[in-house]
Amino acid sequence: MIERGEVANSWRRERWDSFRLLTPNWQSRLPGLHYEGPDPDGYMTTAEITEFVERFAKLSGAPVRTGTDVTSVRRAGDGYRVTTSRGEIACRTLVIASGACNLPTVPRFAGAVPASVEQLTPFGYRGPGLLPEGGVLVVGASATGVQLAAELRRSGRPVVLSVGEHVRLPRTYRGRDVLWWMDASGVWDQRYDEVDDLTRARRLPSPQLVGTPERATLDLNALTSMGVELVGRWADVRDGRALFSGGLRNVFSLADLKMERLLGTFDEWAGRRGLGDEVAPPERFAPTGVPDSARWQLDLNSGEIRTIVWATGFRPDYGWLEVPVVDDKGRLRHDGGVVDSPGLYALGLPVLRRRRSTFINGIEDDAREVIAHLAHHLAVRR
Amino acid sequence: MTTVANGVNVQALLDAREVLKSAPEAAQFVWRASSKWQNGVHSTTTVKEFFGLGQEQTHRNEAVFDADHPEVFAAEDNGITPIEYLLVGLAACLTAGVASVAQNRGIQLRSVEATLEGTHDIRGILGADSDVRNGFNDIKVTFNIDADASKQDIEALVAQSQKRSAVFDALTNPTNVTVEVA
Ligand SMILES: Cc1cc2nc3c(=O)[nH]c(=O)nc-3n(C[C@H](O)[C@H](O)[C@H](O)COP(=O)(O)OP(=O)(O)OC[C@H]3O[C@@H](n4cnc5c(N)ncnc54)[C@H](O)[C@@H]3O)c2cc1C
């Protein structure tokens, strides 16, 4: 196992100070290691998840070579040649487990933002205290965006949140964590080859969830009531003005309808299972409130906005992969983790083999199945 | 899925989607219109040819649209005002979307009606107040749909139709427009 940093590197280096997992503790499971602390329904801080992954590294006895950067992987003979910052390695098979979120994505028009406005990605953001005084424009309303918008607003700053398509979820539903429902009702078990539109499922933004001790919902209504101003999807910059889409209402409708449909499937499942007594009665949530008149432009030279935080998603970095298995959108071509080149495999990507794969919780089954394929490949080729 | 007949050949659209995924060049269309000044603020615009699927294409019939301004603008009202054509385009595009999505989702439509309202402060175009924009301030579309589906499914149809609408996108997002003198 080769790691450019330390064990649990992404958790150590790529998260902001107040970060907590949005999955409950009992769901953070690695093969043979379950949460055994006092608060199964809580959410780990970065220190806790780092410690958890470290514990797993010791427990599994994985031979991790830390501080070793993979700089190139090439096809060689019937295997691969791996060049690292500490020499070369030849191997018959190779598992790419370098993560799905190596780089923050930022739209091209970021280059047209006036220099007087500071720009940050979630990798550079640590907390509100390090930002200049004044207004913040947070771009993107998925998990990262809603969490940072809330934290920045609580610090007393005026916050504008630019909202595109998003996934709305309540933190708890009928008394249980909404992710308990995802897990128990089988939504997370849906296999990659059963999903209607796999490309779409793999690109689905993270849900608007935050892990807090209060188990509070952090949807757009919650942000509006905190005083966060919502604007449409940021479409372009013209003459120093940010232009936002006028289609805000429809992204609200899409997310409200999808949430309703999902909660409906939970209710049906609970009904079939006769869980009526174990969970609270069905709930429905107020539709996302539409601002009286959402602004569709904002003058970035006016001084109103001093900082832009791009919470516009992440992408993997395969700059080192010199095997032609990356598509023109920068995504790895694979079938359930079996990459389109003999002996090459992947783990840890969204909806790799099932919806659960997007989360830490998914690795156990994925690893077993992918490694079975790998072992078979070695056995047959020997 | 039950057979529904909304008159949309969804299979052809789904097939096209698959083919164009691997042939993005063929997906490049150019829509064209040419106009001619008549008199006063009256003009006629003709639409016939377009480019798509790698070659020149023609509509079955040429279409001619008169645009003018109403008598309250001291004009002759030989046709609707240009900004009303935006409502025509939006209504037609969203309606087509509703029909296609309904077909794809196996929902039989009985009637689909929409009313559109664009609020417009004409002080902008008259130059009476430089803080007022020229275009619409707000557009409101109200659909009345009779179909074999729940209210929620109908709302989902309308939401999906906006999500995939060319005119909705063109109106809600900025577009580069170049106007030149030949
Ligand atoms: C902001 C954020 C929040 C998340 N929250 C949750 C959550 O609440 N719950 C949950 O279940 N999941 C969450 N996830 C998803 C979770 O991070 C992944 O499921 C999990 O980390 C996947 O683990 P991994 O080891 O495959 O990838 P990573 O954790 O990304 O690890 C990849 C490792 O590869 C190393 N690496 C990369 N390139 C090279 C190279 N060229 N050479 C050497 N080493 C390299 C990196 O240093 C890193 O240590 C979140 C993800 C993000 C980005």
UniProtKB/TrEMBL annotation, chain A:
Q: In the UniProt record, does the keyword Oxidoreductase occur?
A: yes
Sorted alphabetically, which Gene3D superfamilies does this protein's record hold? FAD/NAD(P)-binding domain
- One short Pfam name that applies is Pyr_redox_3
Biological source species: Planobispora siamensis
Q: Which domain of life is it from?
A: Bacteria
Q: GO molecular function terms here?
A: flavin adenine dinucleotide binding; monooxygenase activity
Name this polypeptide is given: FAD-dependent oxidoreductase
Which UniProt keywords are present, listed alphabetically?
Oxidoreductase
Q: Keyword Oxidoreductase, does the record have it?
A: yes
TrEMBL record, chain B:
Which Pfam family would be a valid example here? Answer: OsmC
Q: Which InterPro entries match?
A: KH_dom-like_a/b, OsmC/Ohr_fam, OsmC/Ohr_hydroprdx_reductase, OsmC/Ohrsf
Reading the lineage from the top rank, the first entry is Bacteria
Note the Gene3D superfamilies from the entry: 3.30.300.20
* Family annotation (PANTHER family): HYDROPEROXIDE REDUCTASE
Q: What is this protein called?
A: Osmotically inducible protein C
What is this organism's lineage? Bacteria, Bacillati, Actinomycetota, Actinomycetes, Streptosporangiales
